[in-house]
Write a structure and sequence with these properties.
14 helices, mainly alpha, elongated, about 0% strand
């Protein structure tokens, strides 16, 4: 699940924090990176748990409705949504149950947002259509939850605020994690029952190694990479460059020089996108030009042994409508407290206790 897009985003955050805080210990910084990535996987599971929490609240409402109907001699309300086949399968999923047991994370302390979400669901037209539809299939049950998630959970500012309060690491993660939750919903099959596989934390060990290797190269070779920036900035006002732009280019140079199998154009485009999210409105164009110039400079010096092509135009990620260039018009806030010279932060979760380059 943790892919290279998310890894790059985390490294930008933590590299910036590494320099801002002044507590420069590479071993602890690397631990913090891996801890931060693990928290993204926690968020993935926690959002799946929200589906279960909504389902359980709907069952509670159903029970109240049935008791009222019996007292008043009226027809009992439909149990179709409260026992939605997809949601029941997710509730019984062994991997998710193990996560709940090990992390002790629930939505019990945020029942108001769960109830509010239930109200929004019940008022939606697609819910009414679902309840009136005579079709009673697993596919229709799964599809209604896909619509609920895309419409009411994916872009929900109140929910985003609650998640941000629970973990400082989740500040920028949800937009990416939403796409993985939707992918998981699409992948569920009734025949797999409770053994349906969720997305793994890492697709393979290679991506975890990519994270550590890129972060170490960025930090340990900072002086060399900034020298390359200076050598190629004759046509650019390097002295007035935003500090975040320097951080982003430093990481991009590390990637170009450390990973021979990643095309230069892929690297440039990825960090141009990150500059649009995290830096100034003009940073994307500036960094695009600078990185292209730096790459050609390194090729000429024999330090970069792969061809350079024209950077691709901004594009939309396939499959779920997530556009990392336009999804958020706000500049991202970097959490400088996310790195410290101490052991990785452990948090109170308020319960009283693109993709890999092809």
């Amino acid at each position: 699940m943790i892919n290279r897009e998310l890894i790059r985003l985390k490294i930008v955050q933590l590299t910036y924090a590494y320099y801002q805080n002044g507590n420069r210990n590479i071993e602890n910084a690397e631990k913090e990176l891996l801890f931060s990535l693990s928290k993204a996987y926690d968020l993935y599971n926690y959002l799946l748990m929200l589906i279960v929490a909504v389902t359980q609240e709907e069952r509670h409402r159903l029970e109240i409705g049935i008791n009222r109907a019996k007292r008043e001699g009226k027809p009992e309300p439909s149990a179709k949504f409260a026992y939605n086949k997809f949601a029941v399968q997710l509730e019984e999923n062994k991997q998710l149950s193990e996560f709940v047991e090990s992390q002790k994370m629930t939505w019990d302390n945020d029942i108001e947002i769960v109830r509010k979400l239930c109200n929004q669901i019940e008022q939606s037209q697609f819910f009414k259509d679902y309840m009136e539809d005579q079709e009673d299939s697993y596919e229709s049950d799964r599809e209604v939850w896909r619509k609920i998630y895309r419409t009411l959970i994916q872009d929900n500012d109140e929910l985003d605020s609650i998640l941000e309060e629970k973990s400082l690491y989740w500040n920028d993660d949800k937009e990416v994690i939403d796409t993985f939750v939707l992918k998981t919903i699409r992948r569920f099959e009734q025949k797999n029952k409770s053994k349906q596989e969720l997305l793994p934390e890492y697709k393979d060990e290679e991506d975890k190694e990519f994270a550590c290797k890129l972060y170490r190269a960025t930090i340990l070779n900072a002086d060399t990479y900034q020298k390359y920036m200076s050598e190629t900035s004759r046509n650019w006002d390097f002295s007035r460059l935003a500090y975040m732009d320097i951080v982003i280019m430093q990481i991009a140079i590390a990637e170009m020089l450390t990973f021979p199998n990643i095309p230069i154009s892929v690297t440039i485009n990825e960090y141009v996108d990150l500059a649009k999210l995290y830096s100034t409105p003009r940073s994307g164009g500036y960094i695009n030009g600078m990185l292209d110039t730096i790459a050609r400079h390194l090729i000429d010096k024999g330090l970069l042994l792969k061809p350079i092509g024209a950077p691709r135009m901004p594009h939309k990620q396939k499959g779920n409508g997530y556009d990392k260039n336009t999804q958020s018009s706000k500049r991202r806030r970097i959490r400088t407290e996310a790195y410290s010279d101490k052991e990785p932060i452990t948090e109170n979760n308020n319960d009283n206790t693109k993709e890999q380059e092809q």
